[in-house]
Amino acid sequence: xxxxxxxxxxxxxxxxxxxxxxxxxxxxxxxxxxxxxxxxxxxxxxxxxxxxxxxxxxxxxxxxxxxxxxxxxxxxxxxxxxxxxxxxxxxxxxxxxxxxxxxxxxxxxxxxxxxxxxxxxxxxxxxxxxxxxxxxxxxxxxxxxxxxxxxxxxxxxxxxxxxxxxxxxxxxxxxxxxxxxxxxxxxxxxxxxxxxxxxxxxxxxxxxxxxxxxxxxxxxxxxxxxxxxxxxxxxxxxxxxxxxxxxxxxxxxxxxxxxxxxxxxxxxxxxxxxxxxxxxxxxxxxxxxxxxxxxxxxxxxxxxxxxxxxxxxxxxxxxxxxxxxxxxxxxxxxxxxxxxxxxxxxxxxxxxxxxxxxxxxxxxxxxxxxxxxxxxxxxxxxxxxxxxxxxxxxxxxxxxxxxxxxxxxxxxxxxxxxxxxxxxxxxxxxxxxxxxxxxxxxxxxxxxxxxxxxxxxxxxxxxxxxxxxxxxxxxxxxxxxxxxxxxxxxxxxxxxxxxxxxxxxx
Length: 506
Known about the structure:
Layout: E1 19-23, H1 48-58, H2 60-63, E2 64-73, E3 78-87, E4 96-99, E5 108-119, E6 127-129, H3 141-156, H4 158-162, H5 166-178, H6 181-193, E7 196-197, E8 200-201, H7 210-221, E9 222-230, E10 238-251, H8 261-273, H9 279-286, E11 292-296, E12 306-312, E13 318-323, E14 336-337, E15 343-348, E16 358-363, H10 366-389, H11 393-399, H12 401-419, H13 426-454, H14 459-499
Parallel strand pairs: 1-11, 2-12
Antiparallel strand pairs: 1-10, 2-3, 3-10, 4-5, 5-9, 6-10, 7-8, 11-16, 12-15, 13-14, 13-16
Helix pairs in contact: 1-3, 3-5, 5-6, 5-7, 6-7, 9-13, 10-12, 10-13, 10-14, 11-12, 12-13, 13-14
């Protein structure tokens, strides 16, 4: 899932699926955002920039109307996240930004637009554009630090500052905004809990609002992405788009509250060997018996009036269900989508960021590698059984050993070609890996059978190899065919239950 903190373990559903976690964008913990009106310029205090930025941050939902987050899976462990925001950037005087390109140049006026909260760290493949398709710059680190320190001081309020030391407070807030995450989190916690920075009293924490305290804690882990928009475009409804790459990790081990010493040793050994789940569980996923359960965090869904999540379903998988996080008392429509291929889309509205992310279930369809694997197993079993059961087949193969070997070696080349994966996402590769192992196993089995003919292996050993290979291939083919039949029956039962009003499709 997209997480605002370091990737953490997530308890899964046992053997019913795996849990996928990604990291790049973050969701802030900024308290209960309300649909407040943006104040007019007459309501601002002396520090216009801080007051204006604080106002638009607090009331994001009043001017960010719709946010669409799209996930596109790419090769390896990368995916592309595209976000579009339907918004009305505010034109408060304190948000004005002027940059002189030279001493004689005319100042180019822009407005500051706080887009969203992002995880601290480098952005890869980042690009942002306005409604006209023009690139939008973002403010630099030094400018951001000064602006956010002023904004946090404004949010803390004069009552809290008067009882402390403002100079020390500014140094503390600079650490919160600009220091590495661990140090920033320690400083933020000391400020919010005790009002101190390096044992110096900065503020009275009792006079700090819960929103300001939560914002300080959030900005220790996150930062506000602030873009520059031409001043002539401020106050107009438009769509701002940005995209970046995300890196992803696969977590396949459920948590245990108190593992034993033996269990810890087994986990350590499993980690060294690169084993994540039992072979039966992995095969059940590849055979389509169990779904892959995926969770993606949303990119600050409380920052817009409505948040939409789209996902381009990767080739080779079928999406069974995409569901937005459920909030008590929420009755939004379109929060669940069961589109199997193409693009899945769901939407919801949140007054505060949900604790959970988008829940997605993937399953390997029978059409594709499952079907190819079934046919390969049937073909392998047929070749071996015909060589065993046809009268005189073994004698003929032994007499024409070179030709028989050439015939049996031609089939492995075909099946290995079927097993080779193209440029695909690691999630797809992990799910399809057991099927590819089966296909390659069939190729190696036919290779060994050809070797037993060329090398004139003793009858007992040769028959054992052929019978064992034929039986194993046939059993795997029957299991895969049975899983396909079971999927069809289950789907028909769900359809009947839905038409009779006794259930709902998964």
